[in-house]
Write a structure and sequence with these properties.
The protein is of the alpha/beta class. It contains 8 helices and 9 strands. The chain is about 40% helix and about 25% strand. The chain has a 6-stranded mixed beta sheet with strand order 5-6-7-3-8-9, with helices on both faces. A 3-stranded antiparallel beta sheet has the order 2-1-4, with helices on one face.
């Protein structure tokens, strides 16, 4: 069996203003999984992701991270958060620079990541010169260049148009199959979660609790043709029902 990288038990989070974001979260994620966290806006999905990343602490319960994750967690936020004064290449190089890797030593890794995300010809461009979809590609490249064992994505495509979103969904799925890092992907889109992931956990409205854990048995290779298939539509209906139950 694959190693468990993240394990949460009875996890809860309340903020100083009295808002209870999470309650009684039990979740285990194994190496190599692509897990979707699905729920309505404000249900604590992003809070859960930040606790897993170590950016905030839980109020109660326990979170265990495997030793293999030490220094090997990548995070892609809802906004690209790129350095506007730096080129695409320098933005992707940033986490390696912070690790003490020289520009010369990092160059092949940065170039390979730019190539894999169709960014090679934009290496010398600045964020202001890029579309929203291209900026998000840079953000993903920056997160992946360090070869993380765990990649956390917090609704990274929510603000994009549907055509761009579909293409980035396909690209992200391809990157996961290539690198096989563990991925936890937060979204409030049933269609996106079913297309991308191999497993979906469904959360209730705040305080968020996990009320369903659903395997997604779709082909490893996924493209636009899959979205038109009855098999995909059936999985979407199943997940939609469980989400509706969670929100009731």
């Amino acid at each position: 069996m694959a190693e468990t990288l993240v394990a949460a038990a009875a996890l809860a989070k309340s903020f100083r203003n009295g808002v209870a974001a999470l309650a009684a979260i039990d979740l285990a994620v194994a190496a190599g999984e692509f897990v979707g966290v699905l729920g309505p806006s404000g249900c604590g999905k992003s809070t859960l992701l930040r606790i897993i990343a170590g950016l905030i602490e839980p109020s109660a319960g326990r979170l265990e991270r495997a030793a293999a994750l030490a220094g090997r967690i990548g995070f892609v936020f809802q906004e690209p958060t790129l350095m506007p004064w730096a080129t695409v290449s320098d933005n992707v190089y940033l986490p390696l620079r912070l690790q003490g890797v020289s520009r010369v030593a990092a160059a092949p890794r940065v170039a390979a990541m730019l190539e894999s995300l169709s960014l090679r010809e934009f290496a010398a461009a600045y964020p202001r010169q890029l579309s929203g979809g291209m900026r998000m590609r840079v953000s993903i490249a920056r997160a992946l260049v360090t070869e993380p064992a765990l990649l956390l994505l917090d609704e990274p495509f929510a603000a994009l148009d549907e055509i761009t979103r579909f293409k980035l969904n396909e690209d992200l799925r391809t990157l996961w199959r290539r690198h096989r890092c563990t991925v936890i992907f937060v979204t409030h889109s049933v269609f996106e979660s079913v297309f991308l992931t191999n497993r979906i956990v469904v959360m209730t409205k705040r305080p968020g609790r996990i009320v369903a854990d659903l395997p997604i048995d779709l082909p490893e290779t996924r493209d636009n043709a899959l979205r038109l298939s009855e098999r995909y539509a059936d999985r979407c209906r199943t997940v939609s029902r469980r989400l509706a139950e969670a929100m009731a």
